[in-house]
Amino acid sequence: MLGAVPPSPVRRFLGRLSPAALRESGVMSERLLRVTAMANLVANIGIVVTGGAVRLTGSGLGCPTWPRCTAESLTTTKAMGVHGVIEFGNRTLNGALIVFMLAALLLAYLHRRGLGWAVATLVGIPAQIVWGGLVVLSGLNPWLVGGHFLVSMGIIAAAYGFWRAAGPPSANLPVPRELRWLGGAVVAACLGVLVVGTMVTGSGPHAGDEHARRNGLDPAQIAQVHADLVFLVFGLAIAAWLALRAFGATAGTRAAAILVVVLAAQGLIGFVQYFTHLPVILVGAHMLGAALAWVAALGLGWTLRPGAPANAPAVRLQSAGRSREDNLTVANAAGVPERS
Fold it and tell me: How many Å apart are CA 97 and CA 121, to the nearest integer?
């Protein structure tokens, strides 16, 4: 009697790619998906910091052309010195981020979770690379440099959405529409701070190259506008914290508190750097703080987004210490239908 014919190498390889085999190997574990999504978010924040280092070290034209580093070389050369190393290193990190994001996209596809956010993040990275090329070819036009930073904020928003979608679904207490509006106002005002912040940068001394032109705005005036917007965001964040705390929305209160703390730290750095004439270290820290403040604002907006997840447990209205009338009042304010 003939024994069983062993599977061919091709069949064995395809068997390792089956969903069951991937799940058993840990490739399809939900924990790996969440860790990958978090690493992607951190990496995109890190790119903002390394991009800031390019500008703050005067290496914006370390590679004077694009997509090649020089007219003769794809990579940096000894003649380009340390500025070429810094600029080309930042370009290399962006390329590596695409490879990493492809792996994250595969995990999102296998789990059918956060796929849209993953695609948006992946598409944003090459778009950012092309925008960076336009910045170099324009000789570091300050408006394009500011746009380069804002594109990064868009990618971070997509990466944040991917991370939240990759995690377990939340079951937050639905909040009134007015509180959602307040959360949206916080996010919008924070975006306004970022936009005006790029104008402040474009009028300041750290152009990325000593020959790069500035945007022509008065540094003191635009910095004052920026500070006024920061105070607005700070006030809105405190208002959101007070309102959500009074309503009893624990997750929203926590998200608002985190935003208030991050904004306070970022504001302190901003004032110190302004009155100490923009030292490089503090400007770099301020760029990191801007990314973290943006993430904190997105966290508040995500917590207050309309609609609860389909598999979230129902909100219990009949809590101890409340009459039925009190609970119906809370239910109506939150948009929860009455249950008999």
Answer: 10
* Mean pLDDT in residue range 323-335: 44
pLDDT tens digits along 31-49 = 888 999 999 999 999 999 9
At residue 281, the pLDDT reads 93
CA dist 299 and 1 (Å) reads 66
Q: What is the pLDDT of residue 137?
A: 93
Q: What is the amino acid identity at position 85?
A: V
H-assigned helices in the chain: 9-16, 19-25, 30-56, 81-111, 115-137, 142-166, 177-203, 219-247, 250-275, 280-303, 324-334
CA–CA dist 215, 295 (Å, integer): 28
| Dihedral sign for Cα atoms in the order 21, 25, 27, 28 | positive
Nearest to 243 by CA among 295, 304, 287, 293: 304
Residue at 61: amino acid letter? L
Measured CA to CA, the distance from residue 230 to residue 263 in angstroms comes to 8
Q: What is the pLDDT of residues 257-316, one digit of tens each?
A: 999 999 999 999 999 998 998 899 999 999 999 999 999 999 999 999 875 443 333 343
Classify residue 336 by burial, with Cβ atoms within 10 Å: 0-12, 13-18, 19+: middle
3 state DSSP class of 5: coil
For residues 229 and 193, is the Cβ–Cβ distance under 8 A? yes
Tokens linked to 285: 């820290």
Three-state DSSP at 16 gives helix
The CA-to-CA distance between both ends of the chain, in Å, stands at 70
Q: Give the burial class of 1: count Cβ atoms within 10 A of its Cβ; 0-12 exposed, 13-18 middle, 19 or more buried.
A: exposed
Other C-beta atoms closer than 10 Å to the C-beta of 96 total 11
And the tokens for 274? Answer: 């302004």
Distances (CA, A) of 149 to 94, 135, 186, 288, 324: 14, 11, 20, 12, 52
